[in-house]
Every structure is written in C-alpha cells, then in structure tokens.
Design goal:
Elements (H helix, E strand, L loop, with lengths): L8 E2 L3 E6 L1 E3 L2 E3 L2 E5 L19 E6 L4 H5 L6 E5 L2 E2 L5 H8 L6 E7 L1 H10 L21 E2 L1
Antiparallel strand pairs: 1-10, 2-9, 3-4, 5-6, 6-7, 7-8, 7-9
C-alpha cells in the first residue's frame, strides 16, 4: 500500500484489541515497532514502497499479549485507540502505545495478506474496478481521508 501525503488512503484493515499484561509497575504489550516520519523508510524490511514512513510491527513476543490478540510481525499500524498513526514520529507512536493509564490498546492494522485476500475474493480486480473502495472481511468500506 503506498501513501502520498495529503491524499486519501484506502486500506484493508483488521481490528486488534490487546490487553496489556501487568508485570509489577509495567504494562506489557509484547511487541516492538519500527518506522515513523523521522526514520529512514529505505531501512524498512516490511514495506514494498521504500518511501513509506509508516509504523510497522518489527517483533512480537511468542505467547505475549500482542501475539495472543493476533498481531503479526510486518503489520502496519494505522490507528492506536482512534489516533491516526500514518504520519507520526517513532517516539510519538511509542508514547501512544505505552500510555500508563490505558490497560487496553485498540489497533487498526493492515497487512499484505489482508489486501491479497480481498483482491482474490474480488476476482483479482483492482480497486478502481470497484469504485475506488476496498472492503474488509466484513464488507465495510475503509477509507481514510
């Protein structure tokens, strides 16, 4: 999925809810992130578009909260608890994810396999063949302006 600043983004997304694990005074999510508008997008091994400055999951802890919730390495995080994550710094993304007063993190993520599944279910047609919309597995149109 390519992203052009100032232009609408159409993406197939999945909702993931992660219940943080309490370890002493810490709340654990069980994953690491990479990317951000202040990072070199050419170093991102998960994006086909080497200009993409999105936030990506770089690691999940096996059996951890994120893994149990269905988050996968390579997922692109589009939203965290309703906050847009498509044009944020790495530090801003980390702070949104690790707020101490939030025990649950609700994510919208996209991944290549989701987009491939939608393309396959539409008979391999492009987005333009369906009015410029992409549909998630529940038939909802997901467009971010």
């Amino acid at each position: 999925m390519s992203f052009v600043p100032g232009q609408p983004v159409t993406a197939v997304v999945q909702r993931i809810e992660i219940n943080k694990l309490r370890q002493g005074d810490n709340l654990i999510l069980g994953f690491s992130i990479g990317g951000g508008i202040d990072q070199d997008p050419g170093q991102n091994p998960f994006s086909e578009d080497k200009t993409d400055k999105g936030i990506y999951v770089t690691r999940t802890t096996p059996g951890g909260p994120a893994d149990e919730a269905g988050l996968r390495t390579g997922d692109k995080i589009m939203q965290v608890n309703g906050w847009d994550m498509t044009m944020v710094t790495h530090d801003k993304a980390r702070k949104r994810l690790t707020k101490k007063n939030e025990c649950v993190v609700r994510l919208l993520v996209t991944r290549k396999s989701l987009e491939d599944a939608v393309k396959h279910s539409m008979g391999g047609c492009s987005r333009q063949d369906h009015g410029g919309a992409t549909y998630n597995h529940k038939g909802n149109t997901i467009t971010k302006d």
